[in-house]
Amino acid sequence: MNTYLQAGVSGVMIGGLYGVMALGLSLTWGLLKVINLAHFALILGSAYVTYQLTTSTGVDPLVSVLVVTPGMFAVGVAVHWVIERFHVDELSSLLLSFGLFIVAIQLINNIWSADFRQIEAAENPYATRAVFIGDIAFPVPQLMALGTALVFAAVGFYVLRRTYFGKALRAIAYDREIAGAYGVDHRRIGMLTAGLASALAAVAGVLIGINQAVFPQLALEWVGLIFTVVILGGIGNLLGAVAAGILIGLVSSQVGVAWTPLGAPVVVFSLLILALLFRPNGLFGRLGE
Amino acid sequence: MRHGRLAALLALAAALAFVPNVQDATGFPTFYLVYSYFLFFWIAQSTSWNILSGYTGYFSFGQGAFYGLGVYTAGDLLTREGINYFVTIPIAGALGGVLAAAVGALAFRLGSLRGEIFALLTLAVTFTLSAIAQLSTWVDGGQGISIAVPPYPSFLGEYQDLIYRLGLAVATLSVVVAFLIQNSRFGWGLFAIRDEEDVAEELGVPTFRYKMLAISVSGFLGSLSGAVAALQIGYLTPEGVFNLTVPLLVVVMSVLGGRRHWLGPVIGAVVIYSLQERLTNSGLGDWGQVVLGSILVLIILFAPEGLHERLRRQPRRAVASGVALVVATVASGLAGWGIASDWLSTGLIAGTAVLLVGRPAARGSGKRRRPLDASHAGDAAVP
Amino acid sequence: MSTPGQASPPVLECVEVVRQFGGVRALAGVSLAIAPGEIVGLVGPNGSGKSTLVNVIAGVYAPTSGEVRLDGRRVDRLEPHVLSHLGVARTHQIPKPFASMTVRDNVAVALMFGRISKNLAEARRSAGEYLDVVGLTAHADSLPQEINLHQRQLLELARALATRPALLLLDEVLAGLNPAELDEAVRVLRQIHGGGATIVMVEHLIRVVTGFATRVVVLDRGAKLADGPPDVVMNDPAVVQAYLGREHRARS
User: Do B370 and A101 touch (CB under 8 A)?
Assistant: First the structure.
């Protein structure tokens, strides 16, 4: 029983990480109608930078946030600019981001080799620490992930519902042209959103760098999983993405214990199919609704 | 006219079938038979992908699923059940068709979720199959499966000759099917679906039925090709079979070559495969995917209509391209730069470069811009 | 409800058609019957449900409740391509041509899949006739992005015609036209009507259809407000009220 409970707790926290990973993707997909596979490369890249920075300079891994976030923000804006400039449509943007994704993964492979890379425990003040409630462990890195997810979800919710910026975003998601008629400049907001989404990817990457070992092919494993999170959560729905992430994390963990860890993708995929059949707009509804 | 082209294709295929005999007589290296087999393999895979994704516009990232299904069906039936290899091939094809139909039945029924979701669904199917391959000991179980040479009629030649001929057969079948579809009412229906599915439906195109047919054919051919590939691979592992190589390459090949025409994937397959081989031979294997990904990005931005369309629309550029191809091939041959296949690759790269440089004449550039919506109401012809 | 003495069943009948989208009732129980050969203007202010009704008739949406009948036969659950074969054709408010095909081929596709389907070669030949009717012959080999919006609307029309419809649903096909284009479009429509089609025209302003339609149906907020000859309907106080001055502006 304890195994299930522990697994469940870990699952929820890791689910929070899934949520953070899904946020940026959900945002650009729901708002800009761009499916950005390169998002995963940004996450992985940020994780590697975190690893490298700490390993080379001994600085606290969290400091990497200050480095990668602006960096990835710029990358996101640049890619978005290219897509707008060349009038790349939705499906072609998928291919484009796929190409960028492949290039990035291979570059990472060339720079760092295919070996597993992980910040040494000595350098990583968070890796070995955990909070204990009874027998159940709450490893600090995972707690950080969950905490970040919840904070972002709350902030996202507030911004989208209560601020002008948020309302503008929802208006654009609903109907770009009509929003334009009301003075909402979709180009600037688009750039901002793309940058923001990439910044979120950067944060996710830092959390991952603190949490686990990384290797180039890791990004591939994320694709199916995080897309499921985005779709289940409702495309563009930030709160939904976090909730769906936690749900999937929980379910995967229980499946892992009850059956086998390899079975988790099968279960998650089945969840996706069920969701698509019965709730095509996700469990929690899309953006702009 | 149509029958003429078809006849020419079949004649070419028949001629190619005798190349192994020529090899026996003249003794040129078996390497070229293997190289040709891979060309056939990629032609088959990208053509099968294009029948679905190019013609209907439903991008699939799941070619790996059909391919992997074909490989393992043949491999498992052969080694676990001792079934005659030649019987496993059509079985693999049939299973591929069934899987495709299942995916289609699911995806195409979900009205509001079209393009993007479909792409991801197909990717997810691939991952699931991969997981099944690792979990089920009958399929693989993580131990890997070794394919021994199956019994086959001796007139088909040596083992590599057999593989070559089977690969040729599947490639020919794929290309012929793509050709026939393109020039048929069915094909036009698919193109209409690609451009404006709702309108096509309203004009009388049975969109669901057509999409199901397209995906089933695509799955069938993809798995057929996979069944043959099982022999070439020799030792099957889930990671080796279900990785991103096939899904990625078929996309790049078809996008480069052109998705509107059956020749597109063929051209793309030949160019990309020879480019890849060239890179590997030059010791730049690590940069292979960087190059491929970059090509994909550049093509989408600057030449989304693909090589074939450019060849067709710019005859003078096409001639220049052909000249570049020949000149580069001969030059690298004289310079002794690698082996014969490398000379050809160099030629192809030169020819492709000439064709791609500069933007095409504006006419219908294939990019789906949005000039046809209300925001440009009243515009004159959009340049 | 057909008028007494009428032998043939109505071409189109809507019986208490309701269409709901989530919480919004786009159509709140619309009933109407259209006899063969009528030209019906379907008008109403924004949000009145005109386009929704057309979409329901064309099979794009199934009604939440109620029935749609074509020549007496129930068709509301059928897929659009089946409806096309039964003789229903429609144009779109914002033209949606097949972007990768020439103007001629756009029409050819309609011919290939219409009620009397042809093969590609025949379809391309016959396409010329329909291009003639709408006046697009000069642009037969152009791509849609090379012609202007009005020409694309004509292409929509040609395509719809090529399916040889018994019932033609036009969605704001006269919107945004200058007077010369308007006259030309009406001339084309008269020609089409002369060929035996029943026409339902969705228009935003009654004024545009009064010279042409034999009957006007006014929708307001999903319900039928008025149904009768144009001059009667235009003077109906409830109708004037619904438009709240838009009608007056249109007159001046």
Answer: no
